[in-house]
Amino acid sequence: MSAPTPASSPATDPESGSTPRPDADPVDGATPAPTEPAEPTGPASSPQVRQQLFASLLQRQGAAAALILVLAISWVTLPRFGSTENMRDIALQSSFLAIIALGMTFVIITGGIDLSVGSVYALGGVLAAYGAQSGVLMALLLPLAVCGAIGLVNGLLVARLGLPPFIVTLASLLFARGLLLAITSEGSKTRTISDSSFLSLGRDSFLGLGLPVWFAIVLCLIGGLVLRRTRFGESVFATGGAEQSALLMGLPVVRVKVTVYALSGLLAGFAGALTAAYLQSGVTVIGVGVELDAIAAVVIGGTLLSGGAGTVLGTVVGVLLRNVISNVINQIGGLDSNYQSVISGAFLLLVVVVQRLLSQARPRRRR
Amino acid sequence: MTDLTLRGRSLDKGAVSRWLQDYGVFAAVAALLVFNILFTDNFLSAANFRTQLVQAAPICIVALGMALVIGTEGVDLSVGSVMALSAALVPLYLGYGVVPAILAALVAGLAVGLLNGVLVAYIGIQPIVATLALLVGGRGLALVIAHGQLVDIRDPDMLTLGSGEILGIPIMVVVAAVLSLLIWLLVGRTTFGRRLVAIGDNRTASTLAGLPVRRVLVGVYVICGVLAAAAGVLATARLGAGDPANTGLLMELSAITAVVVGGTPLSGGKVRILGTIFGALLMQLLRATLIKNDLPDSTAQMVQAAVIILAVYVARERGTR
Q1: Is the distance from CB of A307 to CB of A110 less than 8 angstroms?
Q2: ipTM rounded to 2 decimals
Q3: Structural domain for A356, as ranges
Q4: Where is this region: Disordered (chain A) (predicted)?
Q5: Chosen from B66, B69, B82, B129 to mutate, greatest number of chain A CBs within 10 A
């Protein structure tokens, strides 16, 4: 993947070694959680600095601006879009992807990638349907244990053996799908869930919002706090920002990497279990391409694919943006459902290109 | 490429893994052949060998392009979707004749490769992400073009491409062999090939040495795209129908595995064409072995996953991250 080449080391970079940049990311310092960069000091008025500030602002808040724009336009032009019913629907649809993308955010910040989440998500749902036969506890424990174990193996292969993350997780994408097929007689058997207390996890509401939405909110809050306020969170940023330095500083880089992949597997499995409760059965065909949706949401939210920077809030905005757009496509109607993946691909492309061009406008991000 | 590793590995272990990397794929193919001849019914027949070679042809053609891309320290995840685009375009243009239909598919592959190459070389997006977008978007586009349907092919010339023979050798195998030879010559005997390997070995040094790094990179992704499209045409001809939903599904994974098993490191700087061809044969033999011994699809997938991990583990010794 994109390891920094020796020639781009600090020695050849005339920019490094100068005074701290005014547009320093709030995330890469030890500062707890400022949401805005500190007021520029020094040569703040120079147009170059102002341009950099604008670029960094656009990169971090661009998704939020796009979301507000899309929401406003759809609200005005589509009659059914603004209904409480529809809003509730978007929130519920987003909750599953948000839980998956939360794990993906951690993985991508360490500079990795997890392509297995789609299969693991589907596997989690099927396992939950199995576990639900012996009560709500097993319905949750079984998917969490198996999916967490797959994530753990991903992490060990990446961190201990130093194998490339995309190959490892591509292989476990295959493995999880194979396991799913093996326990459902090659995908022909769909197990329905009858345990009412487990079903209520996916179907009940609280204060007008479905329980999965509340799970997503709570998990994202915890995730955001862990990332910003804990030693572990700082290690995650350090691992992705400069792995060698993090190693030399004595940070537990291997443990951090193993943990984020295990976390990603756990969260994908949990999202699968919630989906099974919502759909009242372990559906075998779901989850194809979900890894791309999650990656797109994370990237759209301003998390750098090269690692070292990112926010949970941005990811949530990315997830909402994706689901609002697909909701709009559905409402317009008459569009081939296959356009969804064309648009997903094009959108991801647009975002990474814009992100790349913006980061070129900020010299400190240049590799 | 350097043999200097920070881990203190004993010389023996290094030697073993180096041998595995260089000759492991040939040994594995031989072992699978012996296993099948001994234990699988009806394996040892000319008809079966022909079937195996024909089915390995598309994997082999895709893997050749993938080997070039991986040689530049890149990766192309969009190859399966390019095959799907071929499957959608060939029936669409078959009304104008076989040649226009094939050309349409190849042009689509060229366009995808060009886009991939520009994104990677000129805009500087990581290959995984640039080609991931087209992995999803490309198949979506193919399904949109074909309205999500399977289209039967009745053109006799097109069908001959999939099932015909030249001097008793299936046309698909001939095409794969010719393309293999061309790519082998390209890598070993041309300036382009040398530059490609140099870029994969050390991109910064290549830039400083004045090599046209970006143009070579775009060229490599274009070749990969066109080869994938050609494989898509062959797969469609063989199937006798354009099936954009399933043609080339997970092909990126098979192709990457074939390349890595064949001894081309993911860290670039080295391309092994013969190893790649045997890697493709290995993938096909593995699948055939599992199917012929009545193991279900699910087991086949899990075994494939294990082989991939094993392959990158063995390949990792030479500086793979």
Answers
A1: yes
A2: 0.77
A3: 57-365
A4: 1-46
A5: B129
